[in-house]
Amino acid sequence: MFTGIVEEAGRAEQIRKGRKSTELFIRPRKLRWTVRIGDSIAVNGACLTVVGKRGRLLRFDVLTETLRRTNLCQVRHGTLVNLERPMRVDGRFDGHMVQGHVDGTGIVRRYERVGTDYVLEVKAPRRLMKYIVEKGSIAVDGISLTVAAIGRDWFRIWIIPRTHEITNLAARRVGDAVNLETDILAKYVEKSVGRRRD
Fold first, then answer.
1. Residue 153 lies in domain
2. Inter-residue contact 156 to 149 (CB < 8 Å)
3. Does residue 79 share a domain with residue 32?
4. For the chain, what is the domain count?
């Protein structure tokens, strides 16, 4: 379980087809000192397992299903990716419940500075929009954010300067794909209500 409070933006060094899987190598700035082989890390919001360490690099095996559902298939040398370790049992819960199970990708349709803050608008698949509500939570590339407004197929979020600076949002441009994980509570409510109607 994660909280969507990104600890840093690491840099992808390499993504390649290995003998058994697709291998992703990431260079974190500080997390490498506290991460061990077997640990889970949310990479752009997708829960991955550290399977190796090589110098300052962390190595992950990425499933074909994960590549299909996320923007990790677009990662190249130098791409910034958001990194978060799982929430500690005795830790503070600062964001919202993020599972690290990406529902799909959206497309950045607007990202610009407005005053001292930033406004982000994302075009999302219709199948996900039903779970996105104004003032609700959503994880965008693993970042826990609050929805400020919604349209038919898009939603808007306001970003504070610190979030812009320490995450991969500083490198995001219109047209980029972002990973989306909607609030798990909305999915459970939908399933529960659906059962009652059956």
1. 104-197
2. yes
3. yes
4. 2
Q: Could you tell me the pTM of the whole model?
A: 0.91
- On the CB side of 57, CA atoms within 13 Å amount to 15
pLDDT in tens, the chain (198 residues): 898 999 999 999 999 987 778 999 999 998 877 899 999 999 999 999 999 998 899 999 999 999 999 999 999 999 999 999 998 766 666 778 888 999 999 999 999 999 999 999 999 999 999 999 999 999 999 999 999 999 999 999 999 999 999 999 999 999 999 999 998 887 777 777 766 655
CB 169 within 8 A of CB 163: yes
Distance between terminal CA atoms of the chain?
31
My answer on whether 78 and 108 are in the same domain is no
Q: Phi-psi region for residue 171, left (φ > 0), alpha (ψ -120 to 50) or beta?
A: alpha
Please check whether residue 97 lies inside any domain of the structure. no
Render 56-112 in DSSP notation, one character per residue: TEEEEEE-HHHHHHSGGGG--TT-EEEEEPPPPTTS---S--B-S---EEEEEEEEE
For residue 164, which amino acid is it?
H
Same domain flag for 108 and 73 = no
CB 107 within 8 A of CB 140: no
Residue 98 falls inside a structural domain: no
